[in-house]
Amino acid sequence: MSMRYLTAHLAQEIDAKLMGEAGAFSLDQLMELAGLAVAQALAASFSIPKYTRVLVCCGPGNQGGDGLVAARHLSHFGYKPTLYMPKTGNKDIYQRLHKQCTNMSIPTLPASADLPASLKSQDLILDAIFGFSFQGPLRAPFSRILPLLRDSGLPMLSVDIPSGWEVERGPVPLQSEEGEDLGAPLDPEVLISLTAPKLGVKGYRGRHWLGGRFVPPAMEREWELNLPEYPGSEQIVQLPTSAEL
């Protein structure tokens, strides 16, 4: 049977059950495992020393939390991450994850930073801005930031779904809240889906990883996810491209 691609509703249902009485996971646990998988996927795709400097772009929600965890692990792996949080999350878990990065001497760009200038001193972008709950159009400051990341010329790894993509329709042109056409969507070289891939990335043609090795077998059967087997002790497994399906 083929692997199942998730709608936004089913992805939310799975998250709720994993963190409910049946799954018994805490948000901290799931975020730690997801962020570790993201860091491993980046390391497997972009090696040091060519891609040492990583701009980790974090949104204010759980997606950004995954990015903060990934940044900490990347620092342990020998990368030189820099955090960029245009809008900081206000939840306690987000603040704690940021503090953990600060304790690792990972620098944070101010929200008012000259992003085009900062991008010139990076080798790679980690896109952890929006997740599967994103609904357009883009509000400020992200309506300014996403086109800059897209046009930077730097390779990019996106977490779960490229920021600005619709979870079920996939890539759509970027548009601001004011109705301004902002051009083409992000087109990352690498994607890591978490838990299970989302419907909108079914046609994705880049290098595609799956991470988030925490779904109990009974729940996998319940939702008919048909996930691939993870190799050995790895937290990631590479998925076939759309052309290979």
From TrEMBL:
Its cofactor is K(+). Gene3D superfamilies: YjeF N-terminal domain (3.40.50.10260). It comes from Dacryopinax primogenitus (strain DJM 731) (Brown rot fungus). Belongs to the NnrE/AIBP family. PROSITE patterns: YJEF_N. NCBIfam families: yjeF_nterm. Keywords: Cytoplasm, Isomerase, Metal-binding, Mitochondrion, NAD, NADP, Nucleotide-binding, Potassium. Catalyzes the epimerization of the S- and R-forms of NAD(P)HX, a damaged form of NAD(P)H that is a result of enzymatic or heat-dependent hydration. This is a prerequisite for the S-specific NAD(P)H-hydrate dehydratase to allow the repair of both epimers of NAD(P)HX. Its EC number is 5.1.99.6. It is found in: Cytoplasm; Mitochondrion. Residues 11-227 form the YjeF N-terminal domain. It is an enzyme of class 5 (isomerase). This is NAD(P)H-hydrate epimerase. (6S)-NADPHX binds at N62, Q63, G64, G65, D66, G131, F132, S133, F134, Q135, G136, P137, D160. K(+) binds at Q63, D127, S163. Binds 1 potassium ion per subunit. GO terms for cellular component: mitochondrion.
